[in-house]
Amino acid sequence: MHRLLKVLAEGPLLFDGAIGTEFYRRGVYLTNNFEELNRSQPHLVRSVHEEYIKSGAQVITTNSYGANRIRLERFGLAEHSTEFNLAAARIAREAAGELIWVAGSVGPSGAEGARILGPGAQEVREIFAEQIDALVEGGVDLILLETFMHLVEIRLVLEVVKERHPELPVVASMRFEPDRKLADGSEPEAVAAALADWGADILGANCGEGPELVFNVARRMLEAGRPVLAEPNAGTPEVVEGRSVYVGNPEFFGVYGRRMLKAGIRAVGGCCGTTPAHIHSMRGAVRMLGGGSSWQRTEVVHAGVTEAETETVDRAPRKPVEERSALAQKMAAGKFVVSVEVNPPLGLDPAPAVKAARYLVDNGIDVVNTADGPRASVRMNNLAAALAMQQAGIEVLLHICCRDRNLLALQGDLLGA
Fold this sequence. Notes:
Blueprint: H1 3-10, E1 13-14, H2 20-25, H3 37-40, H4 42-55, E2 59-61, H5 69-73, H6 81-96, E3 101-106, H7 113-117, H8 121-137, E4 142-148, H9 151-164, E5 170-174, H10 188-197, E6 202-207, H11 211-221, E7 228-232, E8 238-240, E9 243-245, H12 250-262, E10 267-268, H13 276-290, H14 307-312, H15 326-332, E11 339-341, H16 351-362, E12 367-370, H17 382-391, E13 396-398, H18 407-416
Helix pairs in contact: 4-6, 4-13, 6-8, 8-9, 10-11, 11-12, 12-13
């Protein structure tokens, strides 16, 4: 199994957002060909990738969505398809380094439907092959087929990828209409099943009318049993009390990011209109629900730790419950247990708390429990106070509250205890 698919099996991944939106924000006119920037302004393209990486993106997308001969022909640039795609992949690879994944973006050909269905289909296959070959040569890690609206066309390009580069994972992502169907009326479940049958490793829904539409479509695609990528655009303005409100703000995106991941969607990102701020808003949900899983393109090996050491580190032998402590022994025997709370000291000296705990133990209580930040006052950390009591031969039950800690802080406290 490809490492990317192993990563997705263990935890979620965060893709980047819109590239064209960032070009426009940086002063590039919408009438320009964005793929040509790979040749004329590579530093600008790289700066967009770097901004997304800083925002938390774990997968960046090449600036090659429309870099096929048919689309480039409208700008008189058809002969530069290989050049633009190769440059797009190399720029992204340089920005990504060794740890960030690079997805080679391939959009619809722009060909008329009759050309795809008829005798011209072979020519369209060759046009896609030219684009994909250049992206692979430039160093992409996966192929992202995005914003396709017709199954016949995405099937054609899936066949091209699988025939020419079977070693690479491929994402097949569709654009659904407001009624949550494709333009031909296909339901998400049927679309997902077809894409999986045609060899897509990851299924996807992108663009559309915003997070709600893509969320509802993507979770229905989960029925196919493949990882699903959801990349909504920034939405459309809604009229609220007579005002046009653009609800697709970064905070709104973060909320939907959590919903998507909790529903079982394995990868999230953004499409049209999204910015590094939108991706940063999703970053917290990905990290929280990732549970510390290793998402990097190459496995991170910590210097000074051998493979043999990683097999045994932090793995203490299990003891029977009754042998773990006097409290555990009593509880295992079904005996009544008495616990009294002793607050951590207000100052730097743990002696008063230890003295109080000793008095209680000497008078028959079984265990002292020490609270976490009681009475909303500044006190010694209860873990430090508990250690002082334990060193005095007193059994302690430690409180750990979740109200003011994130997952990493909780894990750190548990490891420290």
